[in-house]
Amino acid sequence: MKEKFKLTALEKSWILYDVGNSAFILLVTTLVPIFFNALAKSAGLNEDLYLSYWGYAGSIATIWLRFWAPSAARWQTGR
Asked: Tens of pLDDT along 3-24?
């Protein structure tokens, strides 16, 4: 027997959100390092220094997010 597969409006919205979010993350994680590399080369940095700066930027962003995210969650929930 053939069953009809029906999605609710909420499920369709979630699928579209998930596809869009996945595409955005893919583009950001591939284009930002290429752009950062181009900026570093134009500034005259060698590859070792560029990679260390990239690592520092990632570490600073992670530490910043560690302290900022809990306050953002409290702000959203009103607690």
From this structure: 788 899 999 999 999 999 999 9
Q: Are 7 and 15 in contact (CB under 8 A)?
A: yes
The answer to whether the CB of 36 falls within 8 A of the CB of 47 is: no
pTM of the model: 0.54
**pLDDT, tens digit, 9 for 90 and up, residues 29-64:** 899 888 888 888 898 988 888 888 888 998 999 899
Within a 13 Å sphere around the CA of 57, how many CA atoms are in the beta-carbon half? 11
On the CB side of 69, CA atoms within 13 Å amount to: 6
Q: How many CB atoms lie within 10 A of CB 70?
A: 10
